Amino acid sequence: MQHLRIVDYLSSKLHIESDSISTLFDTCILKEIKKNDFLLSENDYCKHTFFVEKGLLRQYSIDDNGKEHTISFAPENWFVTDRESVYFDSPSRYYIQALEDSEVVLIDENFIQLLSEKIPSFTTFNDRLLHNHIRHLQNRINLLLSASAERRYLEFIEMYPDILLRVPLTMVASYLGITPESLSRVRKDLARKNFKK
Amino acid sequence: MQHLRIVDYLSSKLHIESDSISTLFDTCILKEIKKNDFLLSENDYCKHTFFVEKGLLRQYSIDDNGKEHTISFAPENWFVTDRESVYFDSPSRYYIQALEDSEVVLIDENFIQLLSEKIPSFTTFNDRLLHNHIRHLQNRINLLLSASAERRYLEFIEMYPDILLRVPLTMVASYLGITPESLSRVRKDLARKNFKK
DNA sequence: CCTGTGCATTGATGTATGATAAGAAGTTAT
DNA sequence: ATAACTTCTTATCATACATCAATGCACAGG
Q1: CB within 8 A of A67, min separation 6: which ones?
Q2: What is the pTM of this model?
Q3: A63 found inside a domain
């Protein structure tokens, strides 16, 4: 099998030799997906965690008025999944779509089980992932409760400067909870302020 | 030691006899705290998970303008903590305060370790708690992104009918991300609509 | 009993953001 | 190269929600 980024990623995070885990991934499925194709749709039962080898994914919901709301972006070396659907075996409320031609490693519960057995530190790492996720979600809630559109945008570019350059502003707006038009105005204001200084 | 709700709670969740875990809690600290007192303040390092035996707690942040934003409410039989601070050993951005005279069990990392060793199913339970937390946070983000103040309020009363009756509306408003005045108007509108029907 | 304090409500007014529409600029397909 | 899309911006108008200020109530403490 070809060389996988996830092997390097895990070997660095788990502080182990990449050789020692490389073979574990021989059975893993590497899936290529074209721009705009879906890995998950609403009402699907999500069965995998996706690790992004290449490309960029977006997770989003669609509300009663047909509007999209971005839950997260996932570039290279990121995990993305609908934990609610996987863990509680419930129909998903989200879509996961490729924003660029991408490659993902499909990781199911059995494989997680395998990793946990073969690599003792993997359990700890997994736990860390969960806590990181919680930290991130809680921080985002706090921002949505307390910060203006402008401040949220500024935090976004600070946190994800790379992503800003790869996705349409429409989707950034839907991540921030505002319309594309509002984001356009926010950017205009910021540009003006920076010019004045 | 007196009888603890957390023992019943865990014995029911873990499907084990309460007698078999009761003694584990002999070393646990049961703390009484008065209304308006704090279990955690901003910049503290949170060292415990709190289990609410009695009373009601609130977790909230204060923004740059001095406004409070409620992160969560915790009534009897709930766990509350700042996972970010505990897990990543970082100064907390939140306050945890008693809204009523309360009693909480203090659970530190050592005790979690002990429970994991003595009760095999506890690890699974703990994992479930984390996933539940994530599910809850993600759903809330989705609501903040997509729903009006009215809809968020309706979801709140559906989800936490009991809490609505125990906390000032000001705090409900700060949970929903609106001002008390706006909440008052939302409620007025709803009352009018229901009357018309 | 009075008085202070906190909470909810209401009205008047202000503002940030939404809705709609249209055009400019960049991108993709034929 | 032209057409057909997307994306982004701008303008106008509309609205949800915020802000500010005042009032009424309930209730706790002296």
Answers
A1: A174, B146
A2: 0.95
A3: yes
Model pLDDT for residues B28-68, shown as the tens digit of each residue = 999 999 999 999 999 999 999 999 999 999 999 999 999 99
**B162-to-A92, B74, B166, B169 alpha-carbon distances in Å:** 28, 11, 7, 13
> In chain B, which among 128-147 make CB contacts under 8 A with chain A?
128, 130-131, 133-135, 137-142, 144-147
A142 is a domain residue: no
Q: Which residue is nearest to nucleotide D8 (CA to C1')?
A: A184
Which of left, alpha, beta for B107 (phi over 0: left; psi -120 to 50: alpha)? beta
Residue ranges making up the domain that contains A55: 5-119
| Confidence (pLDDT) at B1 | 54
Kindly determine whether the C-beta of residue A179 is less than 7 Å away from any atom of nucleic acid strand C. Answer: yes
Structural domain ending residue among the three candidates B104, B129, B146: B146
Q: C1' nearest to CA of B67: which nucleotide?
A: D18
Rounded-to-integer distance, Cα B129 and Cα A23, Å: 33
State the Cα–Cα distance between residues A143 and B92, nearest whole angstrom: 15
pLDDT at A27: 87
